[in-house]
């Protein structure tokens, strides 16, 4: 049955397992499209245009914002980041879902956009904040100061849990992956997404006339 | 995680496989409660009060309607039928789901009731009307006239498909049963139903204070 694509928003505090879950979801369904952001920051070595980012200068970026071509955008450390609408709408019309790895601000903006009716939003919670801190420490990437700042950012992020359609407490990666798959399968089956149902019922009713 | 119970509305034209699907769902999850209707018609041999129906006289029935104790009610062939609110609300508060086998009118009334926010509604479509008629004929229960009347009723019922959250085209009973399970599992996981999430996040945030 033909259906319209979904905009799947996955948010969580850093370290709650969101990236791993996103990767597993993409492996489960290769038709999923991972949303690529546009940015005004310079490409780093190895970064590929259209794969890691759409690299744009400030003028181009602001022109897209002005034309309503960004689903959401924000400034982070002096650089602009945003989600171009075109590729998302294109995937949607082709019945393909797009996965967004965004924070609560990005989530709010996408929900408030013209494509907001197609959003399914999922928030991933850690089982505990101590566990979250343990994971950040064990990465051995950050100083104690950076970790403290990340934990504060995590608290801010977690405070927005109630804005999401689904909340998953990520105690076990396998269980959480199964939950994500179930949510996606059911959301895809919703009547409002099955754009093929109208024509199907019309044919059904005309059968015996 | 503690959650509030759902009101699961299952509707379909007669012969589309709804009763079989309901039975399979109850076998899959014995905690599901099948909604028992109240009626003013006389019990038939073997019918048990509270299991097949709540048998009430007209005065008792109308008193319940007057007191707002019926989620929905209708008159069919001179008898009154309705869904008492008490047992549904009780199951809901205990985190148990109630399954309703009702037509589109019953579905509309339950959605419009005070418990409407807890409804998940699913419409089961036959793959074709010819198939539906074939199933009715093969039962060998009805005359051609009765079958023609049932088919007209089926068309009326089908015309309300777009009022439901989910639509399942029942081509294969096993597949349709899996779809139902997936829908139920996902709907139970919705943030708004997980009444235990609020306290959980409060504990999470207080952890390090």
Quick take:
Two copies of one chain form a homodimer. With 209 residues, chain A is α/β, with parallel strands linked by helices.
Walk me through the structure.
Two copies of one chain form a homodimer. By secondary structure, the first copy, chain A, is an alpha/beta fold. Chain A has a domain at 7-35 and 96-206: P-loop containing nucleotide triphosphate hydrolases (Rossmann fold), CATH 3.40.50.300. In chain A, 43% of the residues lie in helices and 20% in strands. Chain A has eight helices and nine strands. Chain A has helices spanning 18-28, 58-66, 85-93, 104-112, 129-138, 144-158, 173-188, 197-206; strands at residues 7-11, 33-34, 37-39, 53-55, 70-76, 79-84, 98-101, 119-125, 166-169. In chain A, helix 1 (18-28) packs across helix 7 (173-188). The longest helix of chain A has 16 residues, at 173-188. Chain A starts with 6 loop residues before the first strand and ends with a helix. Chains A and B meet through helix 6, strand 9, helix 7 and helix 8 of A and helix 6, strand 9, helix 7 and helix 8 of B.
CATH class of one domain in chain A: Alpha Beta
Assembly state = homodimer
Biggest sheet strand order of chain A reads 2-7-1-8-9
Helical coverage of chain A, percent range: 40-55%
Kindly provide the radius of gyration of chain A, computed on alpha-carbon positions and rounded to a whole number of angstroms.
Answer: 19 Å
Q: Provide a count of the helices of chain A.
A: 8
